[in-house]
Fold:
Amino acid sequence: MSVTERVWGAFTAMIKLEDKVTRQAEALKAQQQRIEDLTARVIRLEAQLELLTSAALVRRLKE
Structure:
């Protein structure tokens, strides 16, 4: 194996590694966006639950 082949192999391995890192970064961004969307949904659900719980409590107190 010549030096040129070894250098070429190192370059190709580095390019493949860079591509993998780029794809992982994109996947991580997408996953983070999904987590943020789910967090927002949970917050909305918690707010609705609190409102309904307090409304039920007020209704019970009036009876």
User: Anything to note?
Assistant: The two ends are 90 Å apart (CA to CA). Helices lie at 3-62. The chain is about 95% helix and 0% strand.
